[in-house]
Write a structure and sequence with these properties.
single chain, alpha+beta, BirA Bifunctional Protein, domain 2, 2 domains, seven-stranded mixed sheet, five-stranded mixed sheet, 13 helices, 23 strands, binds adenosine-5'-triphosphate
Length: 434
């Protein structure tokens, strides 16, 4: 497969099969905004669910939170975003296109070769007004990261959950950045979703926890089903480090358009809590009742993008295989995150097969996202499911009517086995559940 065409194929598959649509398409679309369709929304929910389980459910030391998108404007002064959440921007004097100065090579417009303006710092936060009066005092921001909602709630969560350091707070939610050059489908958008976790530790133990979280997060992508050879770490050099960070590593994936960041792991020191203490005038120290020490904790952050993870899953799973002279498109993703878990088909639309198949579908639906399909040749029905990564297809045929067994066809191997219909839930349990 030519590398440059894979993205085009993913975009058109996404549209055709209801994974991702362009936002406001009937109005010509709006740059960098995307809508998740019936299949995409399930995939997105499953990715978030797997993250939530790994980070919150299955651990004793991390609590969940869902903070508001709009926060007190002082939050963004304290965090440093008002002052320094900027990218350098240049405009082409000829074609009027706009670029991030740090993303272009040379001093001419990469599209038309025209002359560029001097670089200007451009703040990436979306601004709007709260209430009916549109003036400076009512200016608020859409959050550019979910992390600040966690910092300002640090003591609320710690006290209400009676956690002791080290512990973490996890959150999934939308974030907004007025990116200068969004693009590559859902890779860089202006509205996106983050899965962030802030882990509060005693100063001096931060480096050890940083290493642990690097390993834990890299392993998570393996469990998600991403091929390890497509993942790597990238360490931020001194000129790349954000204003708050002591150390930062990105987990990168080899996208069809090159190695790019998927998740950031940052040692944010006590920067954020100290600044919020300073700007709010409230004591944000933690008291350790074992050692009787009082301190501002250090924070190790793991910050992943939901949309970028979903794009990674699609890109990593996409295969074209030659089968008997035909091309089969298949999304070989981890069955546990597949949007549709099981498709149920009656082989033909007669002899009572649809009734039996509908009963099986209704039973499986209590647990899984199930798709029922009666139309077309069975081979074509299998292919349609391969395209959206459905791991199992159950077919009711004439033998079913005699012995109550069904054919279960597996997506990757295309192998077929017979399973008693009463045992299907049991058959799928380990294969489909987290
Ligand atoms: P980049 O260098 O790509 O702009 P960043 O270093 O600013 O990213 P972080 O602030 O570390 O990104 O954000 C954490 C994660 O949030 C990223 O790894 C990515 O998965 C996601 N993310 C950030 N910006 C966007 C965006 N514009 N669109 C989609 N996801 C994003």
């Amino acid at each position: 497969m030519a590398k440059k065409t894979i993205m085009d194929k993913l975009v058109s598959l996404s549209k055709r099969r209801g994974i991702v649509f362009q936002s406001s398409e009937i109005y010509g679309g709006i740059n960098s905004c995307w809508d998740y369709g019936p299949v995409g929304v399930e995939l997105k929910r499953n990715i978030k669910e797997f993250w939530w389980r790994s980070m919150v459910f299955w651990r004793n030391d991390i609590e969940g939170l869902d903070a508001s998108i709009i926060m007190h404007p002082k939050v963004w002064e304290a965090s440093g975003h008002v002052e320094s959440f900027t990218d350098p921007m240049v405009d082409c004097k000829q074609c009027k296109r706009r670029f991030r100065a740090d993303e272009i090579e040379g001093d001419r417009c990469p599209v038309c070769g025209g002359e560029l303006t001097e670089a200007r710092q451009f703040n990436l936060m979306f601004k709007t007004f709260m209430g009916p009066v549109e003036d400076e005092t009512n200016t608020i921001y859409l959050r550019p990261e979910t992390a600040q909602g966690i910092y300002v709630n640090f003591l609320n969560v710690q006290k209400s959950s009676r956690q002791k350091i080290p512990f973490g707070i996890a959150q999934i939610g939308k974030a907004f950045r007025n990116e200068i050059t969004p693009g590559n489908f859902i890779f860089r958008t202006r509205e996106f979703e983050q899965m962030e976790m802030q882990y509060f530790v005693k100063p001096g133990t931060d480096e050890e926890f940083f290493e642990k979280w690097k390993a834990t997060r890299m392993a998570w992508y393996g469990e998600l089903g991403i091929r390890p050879q497509k993942l790597r770490f990238h360490q931020h050099g001194p000129d790349e480090l954000a204003h708050y960070a002591k150390a930062a590593f990105d987990i990168e994936y080899e996208f069809p358009f090159g190695w790019k960041e998927l998740e950031g792991i940052h040692n944010r020191t006590d920067f954020d809590l100290s600044r919020h203490q300073q700007f709010s005038g409230k004591d944000l120290t933690y008291f350790d009742d074992q050692t009787h020490e009082r301190y501002i904790p250090y924070v190790i952050e793991t910050s992943a993008g939901v949309d970028r993870t979903l794009l990674t899953v699609l890109a990593d799973a996409y295969r074209e295989e030659e089968i008997k002279g035909e091309t089969r498109v298949v999304l070989k993703m981890n069955p546990k995150i597949s949007p549709v878990k099981v498709a149920v088909f009656p082989l033909v639309k007669k002899d009572g097969m649809p009734e039996v198949a509908l009963k099986i579908a209704a039973d499986l639906r209590k647990k899984y996202k199930v798709f029922y399909d009666v139309s077309g040749a069975i081979g074509r029905r299998y292919r349609r499911q391969d395209e959206i990564g459905t791991p199992f297809c159950v077919t009711v045929d004439s033998q079913t009517l005699q012995d109550q067994t069904v054919t279960v066809r597996e997506r990757d191997s295309m192998a077929q086995v017979r399973v008693a219909s009463a045992k299907l839930r049991e058959y799928f349990r380990d294969k489909l559940e987290f």
